[in-house]
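User: Design a sequence. Structure:
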């Protein structure tokens, strides 16, 4: 199966492999690496929090969560197979394993688990907001991410980033959390001309003093020696923020290179406060039916390991089958990676918010299905259209109240 695209589920709760609620079995089969030993081996980028819990033998793990969507992000070398289930029911296993990627690829996700069933499916929201003191992953297509696109400066890359190298282009992100970090994709070309290092900046809460940061030049994957796009690359982190709402503006600085590196927005990570205002909480039940109406699920996730949000209680289980053991090789969980989440309706009681942030032509859809082949091609940076909220649209704090219509 093909993994659920990030723009279909742009908000995730990220759970690290070191979370005490993850049950590894047998525990003696797993070892913890806190040095990020697989970082930089392939083009998948660094593992989340520099930790990976891995095994070289047949083993399993389980995690109990509240939510309507779950995904496992892993790192692996060698010949490894796995299957995943939720509450005893098998969920889709992503069959494509990019050998050269190594880190941060999707092992499985639960998209479509309820497809083919009949009748309504009722979710019972939790009595209190489950998003206190968690890490949220916000994809670049989320409505809280607003682009200055009057001159069509921002270009959808066909993979998972929205990028620009135009001077003066910027993006604003409204959030509520104690820290915020931006992750990018370091872009490359397959030809001899590569992108040069560049500068960008951010402004927090309208502060007139900007902070600059580096956009790295195109990079090679260590395991292939070839230039390739590098995923999950951290650009900056702003820690120790107050409990009030915040807005961060990120923009390109003046550059003199003929081929400057793009400012590519992949996703933001925010850490929520210990307590979220009760105005973000919800009560009562919500339901959705599998009736072909086109309503989008609005729910939870796990990231490079797991996560959940208001909704149904479930047990997630993943089993690994190691067909060939290699000393020093790992099959790891890691919660960065591409992935999902949910929106809050801004309309009436029965309204449903459906976000289609970008329009895709057939070439882009093909690229999404064949990411590996796409890495060996020069990107044609054609703007397929970014949908920008108008100035009058209300920007909701992150995290919002999670509901399902």
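Assistant: Done.
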């Amino acid at each position: 199966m093909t993994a659920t695209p990030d723009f279909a589920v742009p908000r995730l709760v990220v759970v690290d492999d070191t979370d005490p609620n993850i049950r590894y079995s047998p525990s003696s089969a797993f070892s913890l690496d806190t040095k990020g030993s697989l970082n930089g081996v392939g083009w998948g980028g660094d593992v989340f929090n520099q930790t990976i819990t891995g095994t070289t033998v047949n083993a399993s793990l389980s995690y109990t969560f509240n939510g309507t969507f779950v995904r496992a992000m892993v790192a692996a070398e060698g010949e490894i197979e796995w299957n995943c289930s939720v509450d005893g029911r098998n969920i889709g296993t992503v069959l494509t394993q990019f050998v050269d990627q190594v880190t941060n690829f999707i092992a499985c996700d639960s998209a479509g688990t309820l497809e083919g069933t009949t009748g309504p499916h009722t979710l019972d929201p939790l009595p209190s907001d489950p998003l206190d003191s968690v890490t949220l992953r916000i994809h670049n297509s989320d409505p809280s991410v607003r682009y200055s696109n009057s001159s069509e400066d921002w270009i959808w890359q066909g993979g998972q980033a929205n990028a620009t190298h135009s001077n003066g282009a910027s993006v604003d992100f409204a959030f509520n959390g104690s820290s915020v970090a931006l992750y990018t994709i370091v872009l490359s070309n397959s030809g001899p001309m590569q992108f040069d290092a560049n500068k960008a900046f951010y402004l927090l809460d309208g502060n007139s003093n900007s902070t600059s940061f580096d956009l790295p030049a195109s990079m090679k994957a260590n395991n292939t020696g070839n230039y390739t796009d590098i995923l999950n690359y951290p650009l900056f982190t702003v820690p120790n923020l107050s409990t009030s709402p915040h807005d961060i503006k990120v923009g390109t600085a003046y550059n003199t290179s003929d081929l400057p590196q793009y400012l590519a927005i992949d996703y933001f990570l925010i850490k929520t406060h210990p307590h979220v205002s009760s105005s973000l909480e919800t009560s009562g039940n919500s339901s959705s039916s599998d009736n072909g109406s086109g309503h989008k699920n609005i729910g939870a996730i796990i990231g490079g390991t797991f996560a959940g949000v208001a909704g149904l209680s479930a047990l997630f289980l993943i089993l690994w089958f190691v067909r060939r053991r290699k000393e020093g090789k790992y099959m790891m969980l890691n919660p960065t990676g591409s992935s999902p989440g949910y929106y809050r309706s801004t309309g009436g009681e029965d309204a449903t918010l459906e976000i289609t942030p970008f329009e895709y032509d057939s070439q882009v859809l093909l690229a999404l299905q064949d990411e590996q082949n796409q890495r060996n091609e020069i990107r044609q940076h054609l703007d397929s259209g970014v949908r920008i909220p108008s100035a009058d649209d209300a920007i909701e704090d992150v995290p919002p109240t999670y509901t399902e219509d």
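Residues 121-128, 276-312, 323-405 have pLDDT under 50 and may be disordered. The longest strand covers residues 313-322.
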